[in-house]
Specification:
Layout lengths: L7 E10 L2 E11 L4 E5 L6 H8 L7 E6 L2 E2 L4 H7 L1 E3 L11 H11 L5 H11 L15 H13 L5 E5 L7 H16 L3 E6 L2 H7 L2 E6 L2 E7 L11 H27 L1
Parallel strand pairs: 3-8, 3-9, 6-7, 7-8
Antiparallel strand pairs: 1-2, 1-4, 4-5, 9-10
């Protein structure tokens, strides 16, 4: 990594909706060749985190740079240069998998686009569904199409939000292996998930988040108190403490109102 600037850099990044704080101010850097994971329970703020970095949301405060691009001023430029698999998003309903991947390939200006589309249709086992409208696919099949659309141009930087939620174990493993190989070949990945097993198997560094706050960040080994502590132990220790703090704060506010 050396003196190269980080591919992702956020300084005092935060998001607020009225009085509700979706994400408290945080700082993050992701370097080239890293597999960085953000983990937390449902509703912890993971999706807000990734949407801010990819230009899908504007922060309430802070600065964000992705691939050296100001993500607040130029969100479309960021989106044009990264791969994204958002949570719970499906391909266009009235396109077939082949049509959608052809559209993405043209948009990304991919050479040998027909061959690339055929490769990913085959890789994800979608041959029998190639001409089926996406609205008629199962959740798992739609997820495969979304992943194929993100993988097809082998982006330097790939953002994934709960990418394996609807995949069967065979394709979860297949995708994990592809992502690890992509990083070995110089790619960089930013992953949001609640599945801790992914951190153990895939991540160089990770952050644990709950209630919009980063509770801890570092290497998987560095977050453990000792060699016997599992990542699940770390997660429960940190998230449990976070919940206790919130309950104490609510109790204190209630007492003050009385």
């Amino acid at each position: 990594m050396g003196d190269n600037p980080p591919l992702v850099k956020a300084v005092d990044m935060a998001k607020k909706y009225g009085d509700f704080i979706a994400l408290y101010p945080l700082n993050v850097e992701v370097n080239s060749g890293e597999f960085f994971g953000v983990f937390g329970p449902n509703g912890a703020g993971k999706s807000t985190f990734i949407k801010l970095l990819t230009g899908q949301l504007k922060p309430s405060k802070g600065q964000i740079e992705v691939l050296g691009i100001n993500a607040i001023k130029s969100p479309q430029k960021v989106k044009a240069n990264i791969g994204i698999v958002p949570e719970s998003e499906s391909p266009p309903s009235y396109l077939t998998p082949v049509e959608f991947l052809q559209f993405v390939a043209k948009l990304r200006d991919i050479e040998n686009s027909e061959a690339e589309v055929e490769y990913w249709i085959d890789w994800f086992g979608l041959e029998d569904k190639r001409h089926t409208m996406c609205k008629d696919l199962s959740k798992g099949q739609r997820q495969k199409v979304m992943l194929a659309s993100a993988f097809i141009h082998k982006p330097k930087l790939l953002f994934l939000d709960e990418p394996f939620a609807n995949l069967d174990p065979i394709y979860q493993r297949k995708c994990r292996e592809w992502l690890i190989e992509h990083v070995r070949n110089g790619g960089t990945i930013f992953l949001c998930s609640h599945v801790l097993e992914m951190a153990e198997r895939m991540c160089n560094r990770m952050a644990i988040i709950n209630d919009g706050k980063v509770l801890a960040a570092g290497t998987v080994r560095g977050l453990k108190n000792n060699s016997e502590e599992t990542l699940e132990d770390v997660f429960i220790r940190l998230v449990g403490k976070s919940i206790e703090d919130v309950e104490k704060q609510l109790e204190q506010e209630a007492n003050e109102e009385e």
